[in-house]
Amino acid sequence: MVYEYLGSLGFEDPVRIQEEATNPDLSCMIRFYGEKPCQMDHLDRILLSGVYTVRKGKTQLHKWAERLVVLCGTCLIVSSVKDCQTGKMHILPLVGGKVEELKRRQHSLAFSSAGAQAPTYHVCFESLAECQRWHRQASKVVSQRISTVDLSCYSLEEVPEHLFYSQDITYLNLRHNFMQLERPGGLDCLYRFSQLKGLNLSHNKLGLFPILLCEISTLTELNLSCNGFHELPGQIGNLLNLQTLCLDGNFLTTLPEELGNLQQLSTLGLSFNNFSQIPEACVKLTMLEKLAMAGNQLEVLNLGVLNRMKHIRHVDFRLNNLKKTVIDNLEGNKHVTHVDLRDNQLTDLDLSSLGNLQQLHCERNQLRDLTLSGFTLRALCANSNRLTTVNVYPVPSLLTSLELSRNQLEYVPDWVCESKKIEVLDMSYNLLTEIPIRILSSLSLRKLMVGHNHVQSLPVLLEHIPLEVLDLQHNLLARLPDTLFSKALNLRYLNASANSLESLPSACTGEESLSMLQLLYLTSNQLTDQCIPVLVGHPHLRILHLADNQLQTFPASKLNKLEHLEELNLSGNKLKTIPTTIANCKQLHTLVAHSNNISVFPEILHLPQIQFVDLSCNDLTEILIPEALPPTLQDLDLTGNTNLVLEHKTLDIFSHITTLKIDQKPLLTADSAGASTFWSHGLAEMAGQRNKLCVSALAVENFAEGVEAVYGMFDGDRNEELPRLLQCTMADVLLEEVQQSAVDTVFMANTFLVSHRKLGMAGQKLGSSALLCYVRHDTADPTSSFTLTVANVGTCQAVLCRNGQPLPLSRVFSLEHCPEELKRVKEQKAIITEDNKVNGVTCCTRMLGCTYLYPWVLPKPHIYSLPLTVQDELLILGNKALWEHLSYLEAVTAVRHVHDPLAAAKKLCTLAQSYGCQDNVGAMVICLNVGQDGCTCEVNGLSLPGPGGFASTTTVKDAPKPTTPSSSSGIASEFSSEMSTSEVSSEVGSTASDEHNATGLDASLMPRPERRCSLHPMPTLGIFQRQPSCATFSSNQSDNGLDSDDDQPVEGVITNGSKVEVEVDIHCCRGKGLEASPPALEETSLTLGPEEDSGGLFFRFQRQNSVSCAVLLPVSRELQKSPSTSCLYGKKLSNGSVVPLEDSLNLIEVATEAPKKKTGYFCAPAQLEPEDQLIVPHDLEEEVKEQLKHPQDARGGADTEPWEEDRVDHSEEFDTAL
């Protein structure tokens, strides 16, 4: 059973399935797949019993005596301890009664029934905990007004015997159990409840219909959903009082004729069965009003059958395969009032024969033409079709709501303009070019949604209108009507974002404004400072969005008058300051002003209700803050202010803020430099109108200490726990899985499945969408460029910008967007509710967590891989809320030319919020530079341009092959242009010998290997196994860091008898155009005596912080950048590489302190410790200087470089990690 379960989750390898089957964490998931029934002696939650001291009545005449007390169902059962088996007991109904604590006696409760003459029992318990437990359970019973017992989800095979003493039970819920037939308290005994009216036996896996249920003649409501029935017995016709029968989620294809005897039946649920037509037995049900047949196999809707059902009112045919409708005769149907045809395959729909139709749902079909009768029509929802015409005759005089969004309508139908009671009109995402004056001036219209059309202008209003909500976003408007605000005095919401507005109409014609506008969204227009004075005419504004316009100033006097402002978004403009009068906006709780030129921190820290402040990507230099911040401040974002310096006192004051985002000053290292050459990212997350953020993101740009990267996004919808767990664990799981398989579909799928398992108890009833992007080299072809592998479940998506065009890489696993998943879920008999959610819980069919929804919700991801090219510019990750409000093309176009990825991600979130998103929204933008323009190779004597555009003139001949494989990304690399490089593994414990001195040959005459970048790595001679978190080497490495076949250590390596713990990169070099040390590298020096002067050369060991290494560079007053040194800072130093043998290699190997663990690999401490100062042994100083002099002496005096003539005497300085 376990193997079958793991295989259905997505594991494919039999060996891996066996390994997973032994994992103890599997129990958190498997219990929902094959849960064991519960024994009757473990029913403490539904049955309380014990021997206690009991007294009957309130007077002192009765004595306390030991009795057996049982609380089960709706009754308290009191019996003698000796006679408890003979049936002599007192039964006290508790529904509507009382349970109270006794003050005069410790740990005692008084139970009483409803009514004036009802008896009372006092029970004394042994402990306070036991007393409280009985009190809680009894309080639930007495609070009921109907005798209802809920025993759902208890894994019962039978009901407790004591429950049958509760003869007043009218409703019994046994949902999600394992009820059996022939047992003492099984289904065959339920007829003993003489007053039972409602019985719920859904999800019990019965298989066969329990015939004895047909003898409970008092039943009026029976739910037998999801029990695997293939047929119904004829005895069901005996339930003559039955009014509601639910048979959803079974395998029924027909109904017995005896079902027609149920003349009281008014509601019949047959959804998610296997019916291919409306059962004929339904015609005989003369009182049937509601018929639900969603999720069946109907292909033709026969309206003639509905005509013969004289009492039918509501019909539900959602999620079938309906392709057409037919009618036997021209007789009209005057009974049906509500029809639901959502999610079918209809192309044309004519329901004009339904003369009394009041409400029609036909969303998500393929309709082109729709014809209806308008006599009684009140609501029409036809979104997401291909409608070009909608005909309703006669004019629907009762129509109040019309939703026709996401169609192909080019004009508003005339009959809509003539409707006198229409209140809501949604025609967004169509092809409209104009809005008729009759619509805009309607005296009944309250809400008008015409966004995402081609409207160029609006008619001028002449009369006052009652319009309250107006959505005009994503049109071609250059201006709004001059009388809009003066005639639409009830207007409270206006969204005119993504237009071409240059000005705004005045809000008042007299001295005082009557505007009631509260929410104004004007993002992505062409508004200038001249529009600001107009805003003063809206004194009731609460939310104002002016992002991505051309504002340069915001007059202080104007902002002072917006006293009711609660949310202000001014991001993406050219503002230099925020007016000081913002301190008068006492109700302001959100200020978003990122991506401006603000240099002075606004005076917002005195506002009493401020909660969220985003001033990222500005020019802030300092912050003047009060000694105490407002207690309401929860989120302060100051990232992207490169010149901002925060003092320790300021940070201490900010310490109480829940979320403080500031830049951590980057330290240039081999890791970061290599990664930043190819990609950089920015992340933005906004909570919106919700009080918590349920979106988390993952970004590791030096994954596995190699030139690889991992990015992810996780959306928990309503829970924040699972996204946080996935954020912390998923990268480590991926690192482990990459060790076991090099096939992208295998390690990505296993990453998701293992992460699903590791959620444990938290993942039982909570779920999360997940998106993971992995940038790597193809291990099968190490000379290839980068490969992007994307895997996802749920609704988070990744979009690649390739040559300016969006390329979706993910798949949306929801019932609305994935027909294959919808078919799978239907076949597995899930109940899909009207809001398109699986069992009413989630719209996702694949996600991490929600193990109790197996097999309908699975964790198996969609996986897609593609090679990255020079045309790939951006990678955008976003959650569901982002892509619901931004199209792929719009998102790519909006940020394609934004150079700062943080500002780009901020812009996407701002756009989504301005377009109507009120939910959590998250966006990550990764700027890619992985094409040939990022190459720094010198191949076959040709210099390829590097990142800085420099080229090398050195000729490369007969490059020796490397003797060992290299880094964690499978790259063997050497840097040589008057420079040699050593990458010595961390954790090997290599030792070196100083027996071989430097050769002293001119570096320019030496043959050297090709210099390769990460885009074109050197082919390796063997297979390199990427090391896991514990980073150990395989046995083919000897103690000196070489292959076991090598006899000699590396020349020039000084031995100190210690173990090399981290990577060391030391360059003893001379030459023309060497680059000066980068300022980001930390430097310390040790000055030697004057007798050891090196002839004017000045050297430093420079420590690079991400990986422990030391760099020895000659420094001069006239240094120029060389291709070699440029390549050094653009190349990821590799953990686990071994130095190849070459005669020209001059290395100094220095032992450093033990490394610190970081994502499975190691990096050196960020700060240089005092004990890290290099003490050069006296007996080695001469040898070091000799190694440095040999290349110079070999050249001779004639070859002396010009920069040597002007050199100044300096003492040697060394700085490295010991």
Task: Describe the protein's topology.
Layout: H1 2-9, H2 14-21, H3 27-30, E1 47-56, E2 65-72, E3 75-79, E4 89-93, E5 98-101, E6 108-112, E7 120-124, H4 128-142, E8 148-150, E9 171-173, E10 198-200, E11 221-223, E12 244-246, E13 267-269, E14 290-292, E15 300-302, H5 303-308, E16 314-316, E17 324-326, E18 338-340, E19 348-351, E20 359-361, E21 369-373, E22 379-381, E23 389-393, E24 401-403, H6 414-418, E25 424-426, H7 437-440, E26 447-449, E27 469-471, H8 484-487, E28 493-495, E29 519-521, H9 532-535, E30 543-545, H10 556-559, E31 567-569, E32 590-592, E33 612-614, E34 635-637, H11 648-653, E35 659-661, H12 670-678, E36 679-686, E37 695-700, E38 709-715, H13 721-740, H14 744-758, E39 767-777, E40 786-793, E41 797-802, E42 805-808, H15 819-827, E43 848-849, E44 862-867, E45 872-878, H16 880-885, H17 888-895, H18 901-914, E46 921-928, E47 938-939, E48 942-943, E49 1082-1083, E50 1098-1104, E51 1109-1115, H19 1123-1129, E52 1156-1158, E53 1161-1163, H20 1178-1195, H21 1202-1205
Parallel strand pairs: 8-9, 9-10, 10-11, 11-12, 12-13, 13-14, 14-16, 15-17, 16-18, 18-20, 19-21, 20-22, 21-23, 22-24, 24-25, 25-26, 26-27, 27-28, 28-29, 29-30, 30-31, 31-32, 32-33, 33-34, 34-35
Antiparallel strand pairs: 1-2, 1-7, 2-3, 3-4, 5-6, 6-7, 36-46, 37-38, 38-39, 39-40, 39-43, 40-44, 41-42, 41-45, 45-46, 47-48, 49-50, 50-51, 52-53
Helix pairs in contact: 1-2, 13-14
